[in-house]
Amino acid sequence: MRKSLIAGAAVALTFATAAPALAANSPGTASAGSADFAKGTQTFKVEPLAVCTVNPDAAGTVTGSSPAVSRTGLKIGETSSTCTTEVVNPDEFLTRTKSSARGTGFELSALTAQKGPRLKIAEWTVTCDADDKGTRADWELKGMAGWTGLPQEIPAGYVHEIKAASGTVLARAKFTDTVFPEPNDGGLAMTLLRITFEPSSGYTGSITVGSTACSPTP
Distance (Å, rounded) from C-alpha 48 to C-alpha 66? Predict the structure, then answer.
C-alpha cells in the first residue's frame, strides 16, 4: 500500500487561569528520529538525529543535521532540523518559536525475516509552533509503502499493528503520540511515530520517527 501524503495537527491552548509553567516541557526542540533495538546479543542504536533546541532568550535560528545512517534492518536518509525564535513585539517582549525536523528515506526491513512487510517512508516533517497564546504541532508523512491497513486519516494516538503474512503481530506503530505537561500550561510534546517490536519479531526495543516539543512563549 502506498500513500502520497498524510498530515495533521495537534493544538494546546493556554488559558488565563493556567498555572505557571514547570521545567518539565522544553521551550522548543526537535529531532528527526532515533532507534534503540536488539536481536539476541546484537544491539542497534541510532542516537537522536538532527537535534536542535531553541534559544528563548535571543532571536535567531539554531540548526541541526545528520548524515544518512544504516543498521542491519534499518536505513534512514539525511535529516535536518531548525529551531527559531522570533521577536514579534519588542515593546511588549513578545516572541514566538518554531521547532521543526525533517527526515528522508526511512526503510525498516528487519521484519521481512519473519514474513513481515518492508516499511518505507519517503519523507516526514514534524513541527511545534509556540507563541504567548499557546502551541500547535503539525506533521506530514509522504511516500509510505508497506503499511497495509493504515487508515486514510490517522487519528491522534492511533496504534497500527504490523503483521506477518500469517497474521502474527510483529510490532506496533503508534502515530502522533502527544503528551501535555501537568499542570497543563499550554505546552506539548509529540512523537510522530514510534515502532515497538513484539517478541514474535525476534527483536526488542523501538524506533522513533520524528519528535518535537514546545511551550508557550513569555
Answer: 9
**Which comes out higher in pLDDT, residue 9 or 75?**
75
Rounded to two decimals, what is the model's pTM?
A: 0.89
* Residue indicated by cell numbers 512563549: 217
Q: How many residues does the chain have?
A: 218
DSSP notation for 112-171: GGGT---EEEEEEEEEEEEETTEEEEEEEEEEEES-TT--SSPPTT-EEEEE-TTS-EEE
Instruction: Label residues 74-93 b or e (16+ Cβ within 10 Å = b).
Output: bebbbbbbbbbbeeeeeeee
Per-residue cell: 216? 508557550
β-strand partners of 30: 52, 212
Confidence of residue 22 (pLDDT cuts 50, 70, 90): very low
**What tens digit of pLDDT does each residue of 55-88 get?**
988 899 999 999 999 999 999 999 999 999 999 8
